[in-house]
Fold each of these.
Amino acid sequence: MQVILESYLQVLEAAGQRDLIALYAGALGDNAVERYAMFLVSLELSAHTAERRLALTRARDHGLDMDRVAVATAERTIEKAFEALPPLHGSLPSIIALQPPPNPHELLLLRSIEWTTYNQSTYTTALEQANVILRYFLASGRVALAKQLLDMLPPELAAIAEPEEMATEYLHYRQFFDIWETLDKVVQAQALEVARMNRETRLAWLDDYRGIIDKAHDQITKLLESEWLVTDVERPGGNRQRRELIRVRQIYVPELIIRLHSLLVGSRHYIKENLTRALHLANTVADSRYKLYEDFVNEDGRRL
């Protein structure tokens, strides 16, 4: 009977009869969840979000555990994407160079998070998977994709407190993107300066410019003086996670330091105290309490 059902499911899939697949998959007993999940994985990028949600809902309508189907589908989709994507090793990526558009494998990884964000009951799994995907995109230098993923996630994920290490890692990513947004605003503020400003306009511009630079300074300093993405992972797969987090730090900690230093020195003619701040930043980098200098060296000891 199982063989007959499986054969019929394959016929339904080939014919595009998506509304019937959950019905017959539900009759497969112990294999029902995994079999329907594999069908959902096969949709890849062909189905938009509403179609995916409807297909997942059909699992519940036909007696399947919708949460188990969602988790299994997300896990298998992530596995499929990672099989096709390059591993994280070798030289660190440039985040200054113009980034190419996302390829289908990156989009599949990005959209894998949809399966566990439809229902609050799978948000904890979504948080774990979001960290994995954010870590990969950032360690690959794909900042825009990581930000796109963050924007897709429900705000409730930031309120999850357990497991603490997982929750902290996610909050650290949000902290980084708050800084990234502030740095973009600095560039926008700089572009608003024009040579022929009247005194009142210039004072207003300078006040805004000072405020956004102060914010960038405070946010970056707070990140540098905290244990941002520092972890002592002691569990299966922990060494891989630790290597990936070190790689992320080695890409972005030096970048944030260089950008902040450039901002402070470049604005010293408008904000005189920023030169002193730039000198203090050098002291922070050299401070043995924070060990920021370690992020300027690859794990194999080569200078970046």
Note: Residues 238-266 form the longest helix (29 residues).
Amino acid sequence: LRSVAVAPASGGVGAARLGSKWLGSRNISAARNLAPGNLLACPAPVELPRGVARPVVVATAGQTPKAVSGDAVVADSSESTPSASAHARIVTHFYRHPLLSDAAEESLLHKVQEKVCADVISIRTEQCFNVELTSALDAAHEAALVWVLSETYEPEKLTRESVFNASAAAAEGGEEGEGEEEGEVVVVEVGPRLSFTTAWSTNAVSICRSCNLEQVTRIERSRRYALEMAPGVEAEAAFTDEQRAAFAALVHDRMTECVYATRLETFTTDTAPAPVVRIPVMK
């Protein structure tokens, strides 16, 4: 086998960046999506019928070689079924703030005060990337994933911890200013239903694979809202379950999305399809 250096597609390895909201061409060949120096090629020693493309053995570091013929990739016949699906997968989280602009947050606040709860005095937003992994990431792979998820001009706004947690810790430590009373905060998180993978996740995983992030199997974005109550108002009493549902109805599509009661730890769901019912319309 001889090493063949392949120039990465336009925009760097993987030719895609989720944070900047631009993607590389979907028609880029698999070879161009590989990092330079990671492509191994060896011509087949046998003669093939006319019109049949000569296969090439392709492999990246740590992968089983695969035969490539034209645009098709055929797995090695000796390759067994991946065992990753048999093991419990990890869901890790990355947060990016803000989700909405200041003007959009102010507009949402007025709508919430009018339709849901008048005791809400401010709303802060962030988005969460829920990343499913077959195994933990090392430092190099995590750095690559951070690069993919972060914004081009504001990479520092992608964090491993929620800014809502940081704000609560600062308030408890007295860093918000002496004599300044803080109200209780209610966090509402909404995101895609777990029973199906979104198209965004499919594209995101494809980009991760192009960056040699083979551990990533699914990425879903959820939206988080921190509603601050007026000082002295108890959140549980002022923001009931009915009001929480009313707020969620304002910020999500219940047909394709749902409310996450707790932080997402797995994409596995025990939801079962409803039984089929026959209706005798001719009777």
Note: The first helix runs from residue 102 to 115.
